[in-house]
Amino acid sequence: MEEMKGLLRKGMEEGAVGMSTSLIYVPSGHAQTDEIIELAKVVSEYDGMYISHIRDEEGGLLEAVNELITISEEAKLPAEIYHFKASGNANWHLLDSAITLVENARKKGLPITADMYMYNASSTGLNVVLPAWAKEGGHSATMKLIENPARRKKMMAEIDFHVPPEKILLVGFRNKEMRNLIGKTLADVATERNKSPNETLVDLIYEDDSRIQVVYFSMSEDNIKKKLKLPYMSICSDAGSYTNEGVFLEQSTHPRAYGSFARLLGHFVRDEKIISLEEAIYKLTTLPATNLKLKKRGALKEGHFADVVIFDAHTIRDNATFEKPHQYATGMQHVFVNGGHVLKDGEHTGISSGRFVKGPGWKKAP
Q: 268, 280 in Cβ contact below 8 A?
């Protein structure tokens, strides 16, 4: 514990904005609440933030939200729920109660915030539906378990599909020979192989020797609109920064990598009128910059860094789809980063004007 605290102090002084956990995944999920609180107290000393992909987004959503609130309260620091959602059709109704928990905590003075992306589907590994014991020790341990007939049988029997196999889209394989399966659902492949979805899932992970990237169509469109209206909700992409050429085209991906922010401004603001343009821009800029305590960022003010985005509100549109995700959004005209003209008339200029953005604990070297 003391060694971890030392690493945290070093990280905060180097410019980290806080501490994050991904409790829904291995190995982070092995951490107990008391352990996280103890570490978060160090982050609190530096005025940092606790950010978490909470422990459960399905049936245990409310308990997971309460855990984050407890960590915030005990460690005395702001906390954010990453990609706030109720996943799986049977759990959609839990979102209202989760929102109530957050809002009650905020009324008590706890600075709890959240972020979201603009799609009714998430993307992660196919292996997340395996039982927890099958993921202990990492991927290599899982592969050895699959080679054991008795453990493989038990693993298949305990798979928990929070969304049905016909709503699980295969998008990324390590083995090039398996990439012909990209764009098919798990149900499609199971039918082709004349096997159950459970057996097919385990076989695919073993054959590809990877977790396999998939898209889960697990969320409610109505819930997306409900979350978007929350005043403490920021917008994220939850994706890497890709280009639609070269090696990137060998794999599929989630359209959020190309379209999340344009989808907010075009689909949800202009077309659906869920929130105003002004509120959307606030959720994209000032709100997250303020939450992360980024100095002189997130607003057009004299003395601030010149981070400026110019877009056409009438034409901005996301073009990436689940079938063809490698498509840039349109309607984005100019982007300035620290005053550098990075995007000009919709085309990248080659200028790299980004800077290391430091968190609140950064200290200059003596």
A: yes
